[in-house]
Amino acid sequence: MYCIRCGRKLNREDCTCLASNPITTTEWIATMVLLMTIPVFVLGLASGGHDIFQINYWFFGNLSLIVFLLIVTGLHYTFKRPFLPLVFGCHQKIERTLLIFGKALPLCARCTGIYVGALMSLLITRWNFLPWYVIVLFAIPLFVDGIIQKYKNLKSNNIRRFLTGLLFSTPFVYLFSLTQTGITYLYQELTRWILSLI
Length: 198
Fold this sequence. Notes:
- By secondary structure, the protein is an all-alpha fold.
- It contains 6 helices and 2 strands, in the order αααββααα.
- Strands 1-2 form a two-stranded antiparallel sheet.
């Protein structure tokens, strides 16, 4: 039996795709709260109350993203709800999805590449040895492949989608880390200001 919305093979009646098993508003809010609180908690804990820019915020931002992704993956498989596609905004088209032992993954090949790359980026962010322009260059293949596929009649394949997603994961992790570090910095400054008033 297959899902009539996404085409995935079913072991039981329910599918974990967003089309046939949509996320409720409460689940969406809970996921976004996790996304906003886990990084701030990890970065704040790592800084020990000191200036956030004095620590390796790339590494700790990446670590917080991994913690978040692992929690969401656990929720996805435990409750059989499409939390992973929600986080990535994945279209989940079956023809663009990698198969493992004949079973389709919950994310398309490109999102799977970003997911795997986010986990692997921990090594890059730990030593922070990539200059900013190399990180920007890593994003270009994904955009070029997407544009060619959309505007030219050249079909991409799942290997290319996975590899461009894998490359894009490094800029994605760096942008996520920088954003969360900025938010953590604002929280720290707000806390210091409030404490100065007391």
